[in-house]
Design brief:
The complex is a heterodimer of chains A (about 290) and B (about 450).
Chain A: E1 15-20, E2 23-26, H1 32-51, E3 56-57, E4 60-61, H2 70-94, H3 97-102, H4 104-121, H5 123-126, H6 150-159, H7 182-194, H8 203-212, H9 214-217, H10 243-251, H11 267-278, H12 286-290
Antiparallel strand pairs in A: 1-2, 3-4
Chain B: H1 22-40, E1 57-60, E2 65-68, E3 71-73, H2 79-99, H3 102-107, H4 109-125, H5 128-136, H6 141-167, H7 172-180, H8 186-206, H9 208-214, H10 216-220, E4 230-234, H11 236-239, H12 262-266, H13 286-298, E5 305-309, H14 320-341, E6 346-352, E7 359-360, E8 366-376, E9 382-389, E10 395-399, E11 409-411, E12 415-425, E13 432-441, E14 448-456
The chains are: A mainly alpha (about 290), B alpha+beta (about 450).
Chain lengths: ~290, ~450
């Protein structure tokens, strides 16, 4: 520490005492315009204290003259969005699914809304792309346990599957572990695999299938939608296509449960979801379903 | 120790004197032409048919289009602006290497508006001496009136400057009507105020300071100079030794410069050209005019100060440097022209779904989903046909609320069409197979476009 400030020889300005290779830094005052801007911002900040919430107090904080809060702003903006959406939501509420499909603007709104609501409510099980997973059906494909036309999808979402709701789709595959012998289960498993050319069938397996399985899954294993019985002759397997998974499913079947949404989501949301799921690529027209 | 050393030079107010002559005339003409273009260009009309703006030059921000006569640019074609900027930069280099800083002297907005503001000063307050006197005089009604009027006119010019700018971004007659009724969008008002203020500040106060301290072009233009570049030059051999001269005296043993300071008094940059080429010189040639007038009066040949080359050789435009610059300008110009002339009225984008990448169908075929954008850049509603290449036994369909056939994808004029496309095919050998989508306009076989994408079949 030097007790006397050094002055620069040429400008007469005090130096800071910092030196780099013989160059010394002048201790010039801050430019006046800069100082003024600084003072103005200080005054501005004090103004803020009075207008906006600022200082913590024992019971909370100072409210400010505008009484502004982020929550208020959020709810204002949200109600604005809801009001803008309301027009469409109202239309969807009073329109039939077919009417929504016929109105391109309404359809586009339903698709966009359905996509968002799907991610919020359905993606946990069916995946964000509706691609499903073991035990959870893929909604993009053309294989539907209960039917894939838009009205059927709507009904499935409303009431769910084995959800306990009175309107729910319900069916039960019996457990065959005590009914059939292990060898018989192996034989019928091979028959099931043979339906998609994944194994050699045997006369025994075919016989067991006809007696025990055909009543729901059909003689050719093509399934039945009235019971939600899966088509066993196609390339899509909810619980896996390997021998072990099929044996396990015959021994002690798993039964997927889907909740009923009719009491959880407003009707216009379920309509939007139906339209979105139907658009994913596997959607059937009603005529196909009636066949 | 001198306590009065200044670390920054204070602005010394310059009072350029009025001058007549050839270069002053060019400067007036270029001011009238350039300001005329600036103020009038947005009012030019150009018929583009229905549902399209009929303004010849328009940058439509909200509509996301830029129009220039028969050219219409979409946002993704912003590279044309890059081309224009390259042309402008190399064009500046080219002109500078030939004629020196004539851009600065005649065409730069800073020069043009400063010239206009100085003209206002002169009309209201009088020429150099009157202005200087007025500044030095104590406050009086006359001073307030003259100064006030000057500033008022400056602000009005500024308002018109900002006011003209916004017409390039809006339909001019509509906006004019809005401005007259004080019913303008906030952005328009903001721009008018900002440009009014900046015009007033730059042309009224900052003036030559902009050229000397702020403008980067002013500095790096000297890099384009060589010994054959035209610069404003004082003929030292002929002029020196200078001195006052009385009529009838002999010119023997002395220079032709009579030290009348005319060249200094008219200079808008406040420099003395007799000290040689300086960084501040904007090559406006007003000192040439002033000196020539004096030479005429005293009966000596003109050209003591003149546009000349440093080498004092006759001006030669054919130099390697000018060939290079000319070559670059031609190349970029031809490339831009080619791309504009061959610009397709159709563009497409195809985006393969990421989730799910592919879907297995019940008959074990594979389906992939795509989002297709068709950009119809023409002025007619069109139908397009879609097809794919590189995938055998493929089935293609458009997913929509109503049936859309593969040969009737409808896109409105000057619009973007979004389509959801599903392609179904047997499982492929390749995990990701490269395929190609092709779009053709139904009414014009010349209009087609294709894009490569993938078909994912998953692992084996």
């Amino acid at each position: 520490m030097t007790d006397k400030k050094e002055r620069d020889e040429f400008s007469g300005v005090e130096t800071t005492g910092h030196e780099w290779d013989g160059l010394k830094e002048l201790n010039n005052p801050a430019p006046r315009w800069w100082l003024w801007v600084f003072f103005v911002t200080v005054i501005w900040a004090v103004g803020y204290w009075f207008v906006y919430p600022a200082w913590p107090t024992i019971s909370g904080h100072t409210k400010g003259s505008l009484n502004w809060t982020q929550y208020k702003k959020l709810s204002e903006e949200q109600s604005e969005i809801l009001a803008r959406r309301g027009e469409f939501s109202e239309k969807i509420k009073i329109s039939s699914l077919q009417e929504i499909k016929n109105d391109s603007e309404l359809y586009a709104f339903a698709l966009a809304g359905g996509k968002t609501m799907f991610k919020e409510n359905c993606a946990a099980c069916h995946g964000t792309g509706a691609q499903g997973g073991p035990g959870y059906p893929n909604l993009n494909d053309d294989d539907w346990l209960w039917g894939g036309d838009i009205a059927t999808i709507y009904k499935t979402i409303q009431h769910g599957i084995r959800s306990g709701h009175p309107g729910a789709r319900d069916s039960q595959m019996p457990a065959f572990s005590g009914v059939l012998k292990p060898q018989e289960i192996i034989a019928v498993t091979e028959h099931v695999l043979s339906l998609s050319n994944l194994a050699e069938s045997s006369a025994e397996g075919e016989e067991i299938f006809k007696q025990n399985c055909a009543s729901c899954h059909g003689n050719n294993g093509t399934g039945g939608r009235e019971f939600g019985a899966p088509n066993l002759a196609d390339a899509i397997w909810v619980y896996g296509s390997d021998k072990k998974s099929i044996v396990a499913q015959i021994n002690n079947p798993k039964h997927g449960v889907m909740p009923a949404w009719v009491d959880r989501l407003p009707d216009e949301t379920i309509k939007q979801l139906s339209i979105y799921i139907h658009s994913l690529g596997g959607g059937e027209t009603s005529a196909e379903n009636q066949q | 120790m001198d306590k009065n050393i200044q670390l920054f030079k204070k602005q010394e107010k310059i009072y350029p004197r009025r001058v007549w002559g050839r270069y002053r005339k060019i400067k007036w003409m270029s001011m009238v032409i350039l300001l005329g273009i600036y103020y009038l260009a947005p009012w030019l009309r150009w018929d583009r048919g229905e549902h399209a703006p009929d303004q010849a030059i328009l940058i439509d921000m909200s509509g996301r289009r830029a129009y220039f006569f028969n050219i219409e640019i979409w946002p993704q074609e912003v590279y044309y602006i890059t081309g224009i900027l390259i042309l402008a930069a190399v064009g500046l280099f080219f002109v500078t290497s030939l004629f020196g800083r004539v851009w600065c002297g005649y065409a730069c907005p800073q020069t043009v508006w400063t010239d206009l503001f100085v003209w206002v000063e002169r009309i209201v307050q009088g020429d150099r001496n009157a202005r200087k006197k007025l500044d030095e005089s104590p406050l009086s009604l006359n001073k307030i009136y003259k100064k006030g009027l000057t500033h008022l006119i400056w602000i009005i010019i500024g308002l018109f400057t900002g006011g003209a700018w916004v017409f390039y971004f809006n339909d001019a007659p509509t906006l004019f009507d809005q401005i007259v009724h004080f019913d303008i969008p906030l952005t328009v008002g903001g721009w008018i105020i900002a440009l009014t203020f900046s015009t007033y500040l730059m042309a009224g106060y900052a003036r030559e300071q902009v050229c000397t301290y702020m403008c980067p072009y002013a500095r790096f233009q000297s890099a384009m100079f060589d010994k054959n570049t035209l610069i404003i030059a004082y003929d030292e051999k002929r002029g020196e030794p200078r001195g006052h001269h009385k009529a009838g005296e002999s010119w023997e043993g002395r220079g032709h410069c009579i030290d009348c300071d005319s060249c200094v008094l008219v200079c808008p940059m406040g420099i003395d050209i007799r000290k040689g080429l300086q960084m501040d010189c904007i090559a406006c040639g007003l000192c040439v005019d002033a000196c020539n007038n004096v030479m005429d009066k005293i009966g000596l040949p003109r050209g003591l100060i003149r546009y000349d080359t440093e080498s004092k050789q006759p001006f030669n435009a054919l130099r390697p440097r000018t060939f290079w610059y000319g070559g670059i300008i031609s190349l970029v110009g031809i490339l831009m022209l080619y791309s504009l002339l061959t610009r397709s009225p159709l563009e497409m984008n195809i985006i393969h779904d990421r989730n799910p990448l592919f879907v297995v169908l019940s008959n074990s075929e594979i389906r992939n989903g795509y989002n297709l954008h068709i950009l119809n850049k023409s002025r007619t509603d069109r139908y397009y046909t879609i097809g794919i290449e590189g995938l055998e036994n493929a089935n293609l369909r458009i997913q929509a609320n109503n049936e859309i056939q593969n040969d009737s994808l409808h896109v409105f004029a000057d619009s973007l069409g979004n389509f959801r496309v599903f392609v179904t095919a047997p499982k492929q050998q390749e995990i990701r197979k490269e395929i190609r989508f092709i779009i053709k306009a139904n009414d014009d076989s010349e209009i087609k476009e294709s894009k490569e994408t993938i078909f994912v079949s998953g692992s084996k």
